[in-house]
Write a structure and sequence with these properties.
The protein is 31% helix and 33% strand. With 163 residues, the chain is an alpha+beta fold. It has one domain (2-158): 2-Layer Sandwich (Alpha-D-Glucose-1,6-Bisphosphate, Chain A, domain 4), CATH 3.30.530.20. A hairpin with a 2-residue loop joins strand 6 and strand 7 (94-105). The two termini are 24 Å apart. This is SRPBCC family protein. It comes from Nocardia coubleae.
Length: 163
């Protein structure tokens, strides 16, 4: 079972961070790090039933509470079977933005794919997304430093388009 969690306290109220989350699939949104990563694109507005993904990672929105919570379920046949979620957690004048993957790998290729390649790239993307959330509310985050393996994988799969 994979349980991969990224969470950051953002110095802004939950309503402000929730507005960022609600726009995550809109072109030009300040949250998704499209300067380095394929955009998150859906076949319609963010809502239950919307399908899409980013790059070769495809999913369907299976739960949505505006400003609070989004759940995406991976498309059948993908190397992971399960969900990934975003949640905004209010903490008074600050809030937390949390992303969780809760999934099983599918077969040997899913297990190896997740552990050797997808996880380092996923971790880098999510840390940049959290940096963007802080920047969007006027904070200056300590930029995420990519591990060497993530940098090599990024250049192999994302920059060269081998995904």
């Amino acid at each position: 079972m994979i349980r991969n969690i990224h969470e950051r306290t953002i110095q802004a109220p939950a309503a402000q961070v929730g507005e960022l989350l609600d726009k995550v699939a809109i072109a030009g949104n300040p949250l998704w790090p499209t300067e380095k990563w394929p955009p998150l694109e859906l076949d319609g507005p963010l809502a239950e039933g919307a399908t899409g993904g980013h790059g070769s990672t495809l999913y369907t929105c299976t739960a949505y509470r505006p400003g609070e919570f989004v759940e995406f379920t991976f498309t059948p046949g993908f190397m992971l079977e399960g969900t990934h979620t975003f949640e905004v957690i209010g903490k008074g004048t600050s809030s937390a933005l949390r992303h969780v993957i809760s999934a099983e790998t599918r077969g040997v290729s899913g297990f190896l794919g997740w552990h050797l390649a997808i996880r380092p790239l996923h971790d880098a993307l999510l840390e940049e997304l959290l940096d963007n959330a802080e920047t969007a509310v006027g904070a200056t985050p300590a930029p995420y430093r990519w591990p060497l393996r993530a940098r090599l994988l990024y250049w192999t799969f994302v920059k060269l388009g081998l995904d």
